[in-house]
Amino acid sequence: MATENHWQVVPFDEFELPSAPARTIMQKGLDKFKRIVGITKSEQNDSQQDDAPHYREFDRAPAVAALESSFGDWADDDNATSVRWLISPPYSGAGQCARDWAKQRQWTLPEPPPAENLSQDSLAAWQGPKKGQPWVLTTLSAYWLRDTQRMTFLRTLLAALMRGDFGKGLVVCDSWTFAFIQRAWTFEIPHSYCFAAATPELLQQVGIEARTKQARELLAETRGNLGVTMAIWALQQQENPTRPELPRDCNDFTAFILHSLLLHHGLSEQQLISVLPLIPAAQRNVQLANLAAHHIIEPKNNQWRVAVTAYPLVRDMLAGRGFWLDQF
Amino acid sequence: MDKDKFMDVFKQVTSDVIIEIALVIAVATAIVWLSQRILPWLADNLFGKRRLLVLAFIPTIRVVVFVFALVWIVPLVIEPNVQNMIAILSAVGIAIGFAMKDYVSSLLAGINAVYELPYRPGDWIEVDGAYGEVKHVGMRAVEIVTPDDTVVFIPHQKLWTGLIYNANNGGPSLMCVVDFYLAPEHDIHAVKHLLEDVALTSPYVQLAKPISVVVSEKPWGTHYKLKSYPIDPRQQFQFTTDLTARGKNAVREAGFKLASLSPEHAVLGVP
């Protein structure tokens, strides 16, 4: 008898956050109060930094099967020309699952345009999707930068996608970019889907052996984001874990940097200058160093990214400051 | 005889009563003092609606404590019957009418301000040309801090007759307007879209609120007003600075020419 697959793809509008147990809500409130009054958790030895766990891989085949189950009929329909959207919260692994699905289906995986093309209002120079050849666009966050010049390409691309210029395809869009697109250009995007929030059963399926109560608390903390849940679970299993901690002297610039990193799913220093020209170079360097020292951000592929284990903390901080957030 | 009748209004005050009154005053003062220190400190660590909610508690707590202390103390020193109350109110009325009219008017307006809410701590108001953030709503006056870090005390009395402009009215939304002036020969729609993008790409902008550009034609060129909201009202000056700096750069980089007034218009423009 085959084991049940707890991966589920749902329409974006029907996504529901896991309910938070009262204890988790109280603990969150207490943590926030402690941060305000300046009580921080004891400092960890820096030498332990290397012991920090990396994002754990999980078997993506069941997730790909869930995608196949949801999109299979549409993918098989030769007359279907519409574009479908898969909204991916940061670190959730949805993009990688979609890539696997594309390979399984032998659909094309166009690459994002080079950075210098982002200011162009023409898609002609881009090796993009071709009509009649189904495709999957991943990491839409790489198709724009939040400055006055480099939103042009994404605007043109969105219009082309809406018109159906590229035929049938799946767009994987980071949830923060999606939130910005929806708000900034008041786009009503049809056919948008996402993976349902992780459940204790799904945690068990990917190998997390936690008691149900413990799993529920963990999922409430991570808002059902599987990748973040796995990273935090791995951290909790360590004897002396190095937990991320927001610096005491967080200010507007700190919040802007973190918000920009989430909006673009990571930025190089050069891109940060372009997106946040108002932050002086010295300030920017100090902020980045400070955030990295507190394990809030980390360098990856020449880019700064919010550390996966710090994501819930950063999202809470941005929410408290009134930033426009993703829906997850 | 009259003096005896007047003294009949008051109860005999023993040392116990004096101690009780002193205790009530001390506790009331302590609560008000603590609320005026702890709540602003707490509010400084919060943002948006939460911050304004915490700040709004400060004057409310003071009025509640004041009324509570009054209700406690008055029966300790005065026999609370109709005759006595009339006698006391008459005496107080005469005193107010002659000597403390303005002061009491401000006090009453202060109590009114707690309920009518023309301003609350955290609001940005303008009264008689003074613009700033309300830091403290006192018994007699409201204390605002201007962008130049000058404290201005405005008596609540202004409530009765003056105009009070409140830019955010108890909420976190405060519209900022930034002006741009361009030479007349250009594509207005292109500039309008560009300026909307300038606001959209500001890290300070509140994306939940609308962004709009209003255009008007002048003899010397075209006047653009870029209207948008910062995430927090306290960021309004950094926000307008960011919009102005990036807006001018964007307009220049796109090849549009900023307006420069001819000498005769420049002279006319001087007030």
From TrEMBL, chain A:
<protein>
    <submittedName>
        <fullName>Uncharacterized protein</fullName>
    </submittedName>
</protein>
From TrEMBL, chain B:
<keyword id="KW-0406">Ion transport</keyword>
<keyword id="KW-1133">Transmembrane helix</keyword>
<feature type="transmembrane region" description="Helical">
    <location>
        <begin position="52"/>
        <end position="78"/>
    </location>
</feature>
<feature type="transmembrane region" description="Helical">
    <location>
        <begin position="84"/>
        <end position="100"/>
    </location>
</feature>
<dbReference type="GO" id="GO:0005886">
    <property type="term" value="C:plasma membrane"/>
</dbReference>
<feature type="transmembrane region" description="Helical">
    <location>
        <begin position="17"/>
        <end position="40"/>
    </location>
</feature>
<feature type="domain" description="Mechanosensitive ion channel MscS">
    <location>
        <begin position="102"/>
        <end position="168"/>
    </location>
</feature>
<comment type="similarity">
    <text>Belongs to the MscS (TC 1.A.23) family.</text>
</comment>
<dbReference type="InterPro" id="IPR045275">
    <property type="entry name" value="MscS_archaea/bacteria_type"/>
</dbReference>
<keyword id="KW-0812">Transmembrane</keyword>
<keyword id="KW-0997">Cell inner membrane</keyword>
<dbReference type="InterPro" id="IPR006685">
    <property type="entry name" value="MscS_channel_2nd"/>
</dbReference>
<keyword id="KW-1003">Cell membrane</keyword>
<dbReference type="InterPro" id="IPR023408">
    <property type="entry name" value="MscS_beta-dom_sf"/>
</dbReference>
<keyword id="KW-0407">Ion channel</keyword>
<dbReference type="InterPro" id="IPR011014">
    <property type="entry name" value="MscS_channel_TM-2"/>
</dbReference>
<dbReference type="Pfam" id="PF00924">
    <property type="entry name" value="MS_channel_2nd"/>
</dbReference>
<dbReference type="GO" id="GO:0008381">
    <property type="term" value="F:mechanosensitive monoatomic ion channel activity"/>
</dbReference>
<comment type="subunit">
    <text>Homoheptamer.</text>
</comment>
<dbReference type="InterPro" id="IPR010920">
    <property type="entry name" value="LSM_dom_sf"/>
</dbReference>
<protein>
    <recommendedName>
        <fullName>Small-conductance mechanosensitive channel</fullName>
    </recommendedName>
</protein>
<keyword id="KW-0472">Membrane</keyword>
